[in-house]
Structure formats: structure tokens, C-alpha cells
Q: What sequence folds into this?
């Protein structure tokens, strides 16, 4: 017996919101992407990526059209926002309900972020940069504390070392996390058991080889934010390196490859790997614990390894990533967990995702036509948290969606997916329909 999608539920609230927020008339693309400003000399006969403007914060990409609300010779201030509104419908079979409980159809303010960013010492040749953002219901938000500071950092020029960023920031690990939700083709992250959204620490970023490669390294420990003593809080150390072995046709044809490593120290002697099936409102489907009475796996630390690749040929792209976690645990006999996904994207209207060489990932589609751009995506992925005496669950998930981008700032999405979970000797199935309205300013 299956719990069917509620036929009596109306999508009226979501559609009304979409009509209210949608621009009456889509405007043509007037913004010039920062990576299309100039060109560099050719290397080995290939067309080279153009010289870009200084990198802006990961979460909001300056497309060259916004003006600071305050500006002086010492500082600038830009104000932005990134609201995301969802409605999710679920349908489960009895096995799924026995595994994870009933997943309720519901509205969700996926994110309501307000941001201030800009420069300090603006009259210097290499000014400092800063970012402050406050968010309702962010990716890692505690359900009992919906409001949180998402970003709070300053970036300081560090000479030949690149740039040093200090504060609450992203760890340089995995494409899914380095690339924020506004830029990813799929709607939600699948490999969330293997990374944390943000942590307090310091990170060095540098581009090398004529901006054909990026290097990042950081160390993090936010013990004072999580009701832990310093001695009970583990340090995270992460590093990521990317390269562009192929670049041609003014950036419409490229191949990105990358690798990353993350050392994860145990908090209070425990490590925990849990994740949702590409949903911000679903319960945790995979949850690796030693037994039902523990909140994780008794462990000293874990080493994570990741590999990523993105191939783009005009409006078509293929993004793939693999993560592996090797846990050092005597009690759990050193289990190994893993996850991977592959996402295919086709921008039907012909645009492509412009690649940002300073961040090492592709930005969101910028429509060229007056009525906008349309993108079709399909994704399949697996999260495996079953090994030795740990049965956290083996999750398989496929998802397909259509993204409509009427302007540079708006995205409307509708997607359908199916999650199959093997856990506790039972195989359960969940079907999911997700509708999203997203804006980035």
C-alpha cells in the first residue's frame, strides 16, 4: 500500500507567490559576466580564459549591474538577498514509512537570506573584502533556532599566498558545497553527510597557472558556537585543488577537474554521517550510528577524499563527484562510507553556465533572450553508509527537473525524484515532487 500524493492539496499558494514575485516582463540580458571582460595571451594554441574581476563572495555573484548603497574612499556596501520558497509533495510505500516515518507535504521557506558585502580600505590597490549574511532556515540551521548568521568574514590580500579569509566561512571541500544553491543545476545537495555547510576558521585561496588552477587550504573549529569545550571539539582541516585542462570557444567548451581532502576531528568522541534525500524538509534517511542508543560513531577522526569533474560543451554539461570517508574507530572497526552523483544539464535556449576561474566552479545561467532561458536537468546518485557493523542506510536517488530563468536573478523550478532506501533489512521507496521559486539579488 502506498501513501499517495494528496489530490485535494492545491498548489495555489505557491503559484500565487510565483505570480506575485515574478517580473511582469522579463528584461534582456544587459549584465556582462565578470569572466568575459578581457582576454589573456594564448597558451599552447588554445583560447585562454579571460582576466576576471576580483572574486566576490561565494553566495552572491556580482554581475556588474548592482551599485553600492554606500561608497567612500575607505569602504563600499552592497546589499543583497536570496529568498528561496519551496513546496514539496511526498508519496511513500509502507516499507519507507516503517524506516523513516511519514514525510509530510509542506511549504518551506528554504532560505531567506539578507546580505551586506563590499570592500574595506577601498582606496588601496588591493582592498580588503567582507561579507555578512543573516538567514532564516539555512542549510545547516538547527530546527530549534531558525535564524542564524550564515556568513561573517573578511578577506585580506596575502601577497604571494593569495587571499586569506577569516570568520564563519565554507570549508574548501566538494563541488556541491563550494557551489551554492543558486548556481547548482540540481535543486538540493545529496552528499551532505560528507561535509559541513560553514565553520569558523581561516582559509587561503590562490589561483595559479594563469588562472587555469585554484588552490585552497583551511583549518576550522567552532567549539564556542556549539556548547562544547575546546578539548571536546575536533579540528577540521580541508584542502581543494582544481584545474582547467581544456578551455576553448570563449569559455563555452571546457573541462574542469578537481580533488579535495578533509580531516574531520571527532566532537566529544563521536562522528556522525547523516543526510536527507535531496530535500530540506524530509527526515534524515541515512544516519550512521554504532547502535540506536548512540548519537554517532565512537571515533578519533576521519579522512575524507573527493574527486570532481565538470565537462561543458555549449549548452550541455555533465557534472560528477565522488566522496569517500574513512573513519578511524576501534568500536566500529574502521568503516568506510561513500557517495557519488552525476548531473546532466541541457540549456534548451542555448546559453551555458559561465565558469568562474577564481572560485573553481560554474556560475548560474544568464539568459540572453527577452523571455528568459530554459534548462533541463537529470541526476542520479548514491549515498552508502553501510559498512562493518554500521547500517546507516544505502540510498539511491534519481531526480529530474526543469529550470526556467526569466532574468539574471530569478529561477522557477519543478522537479520529480524517487529515493530508494535499503536499511534494516527493508527496502523503502519515496517519490517526491518539488516546486521552487528562487531569487538572487
A:
Amino acid at each position: 500500500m502506498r501513501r499517495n500524493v494528496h489530490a485535494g492539496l492545491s498548489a495555489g499558494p505557491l503559484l500565487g507567490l510565483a505570480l506575485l514575485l515574478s517580473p511582469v516582463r522579463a528584461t534582456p540580458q544587459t549584465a556582462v559576466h565578470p569572466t568575459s571582460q578581457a582576454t589573456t595571451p594564448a597558451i599552447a594554441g588554445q583560447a585562454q580564459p579571460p582576466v576576471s574581476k576580483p572574486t566576490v563572495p561565494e553566495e552572491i555573484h556580482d554581475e556588474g549591474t548592482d551599485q553600492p548603497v554606500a561608497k567612500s574612499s575607505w569602504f563600499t556596501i552592497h546589499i543583497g538577498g536570496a529568498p528561496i520558497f519551496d513546496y514539496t509533495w511526498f508519496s511513500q510505500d509502507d516499507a519507507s514509512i516503517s524506516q523513516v516515518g511519514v514525510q509530510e507535504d509542506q511549504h518551506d521557506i528554504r532560505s531567506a537570506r539578507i546580505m551586506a558585502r563590499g570592500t574595506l580600505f577601498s582606496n588601496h590597490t588591493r582592498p580588503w573584502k567582507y561579507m555578512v549574511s543573516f538567514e532564516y532556515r539555512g542549510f545547516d540551521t538547527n530546527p530549534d533556532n531558525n535564524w542564524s548568521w550564515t556568513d561573517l568574514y573578511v578577506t585580506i590580500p596575502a601577497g604571494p599566498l593569495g587571499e586569506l579569509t577569516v570568520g564563519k566561512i565554507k570549508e574548501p571541500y566538494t563541488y556541491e558545497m563550494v557551489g551554492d544553491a543558486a548556481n547548482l543545476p540540481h535543486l538540493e545537495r545529496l552528499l551532505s553527510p560528507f561535509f559541513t555547510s560553514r565553520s569558523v576558521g581561516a582559509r587561503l585561496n590562490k589561483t595559479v597557472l594563469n588562472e587555469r588552477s585554484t588552490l585552497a587550504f583551511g583549518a576550522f573549529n567552532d567549539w564556542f558556537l556549539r556548547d562544547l569545550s575546546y578539548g571536546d571539539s575536533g579540528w577540521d582541516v580541508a584542502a581543494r585543488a582544481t584545474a582547467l585542462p581544456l578551455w576553448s570557444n570563449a569559455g563555452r567548451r571546457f573541462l574542469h577537474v578537481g580533488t579535495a581532502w578533509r580531516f574531520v576531528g571527532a566532537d566529544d568522541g563521536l562522528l556522525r554521517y547523516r543526510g536527507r534525500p535531496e530535500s530540506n524538509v524530509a527526515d534524515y534517511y541515512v544516519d550512521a550510528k554504532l547502535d540506536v542508543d548512540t548519537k554517532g560513531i565512537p571515533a578519533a577522526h576521519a579522512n575524507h577524499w573527493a574527486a570532481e569533474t565538470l565537462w561543458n560543451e555549449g549548452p550541455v554539461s555533465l557534472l560528477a563527484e565522488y566522496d569517500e570517508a574513512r573513519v578511524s574507530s576501534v568500536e566500529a572497526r574502521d568503516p568506510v562510507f561513500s557517495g557519488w552523483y552525476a548531473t546532466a544539464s541541457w540549456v534548451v535556449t542555448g546559453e551555458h553556465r559561465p565558469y568562474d576561474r577564481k572560485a573553481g566552479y560554474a556560475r548560474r545561467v544568464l539568459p540572453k533572450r527577452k523571455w528568459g532561458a530554459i534548462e533541463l536537468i537529470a541526476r542520479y546518485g548514491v549515498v552508502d553508509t553501510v559498512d562493518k557493523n554500521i547500517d546507516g542506510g544505502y540510498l539511491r536517488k534519481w531526480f529530474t527537473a526543469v529550470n526556467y530563468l526569466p532574468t539574471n536573478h530569478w529561477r522557477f523550478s519543478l522537479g520529480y525524484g524517487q529515493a530508494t532506501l535499503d536499511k534494516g533489512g527493508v527496502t523503502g521507496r519515496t517519490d517526491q515532487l518539488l516546486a521552487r521559486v528562487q531569487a538572487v539579488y
Summary: Residues 259 and 307 are 4 Å apart (CA to CA). Residues 12-21 form the longest helix (10 residues). The chain has a mean pLDDT of 84. The helical segments are 12-21, 94-100, 175-178.
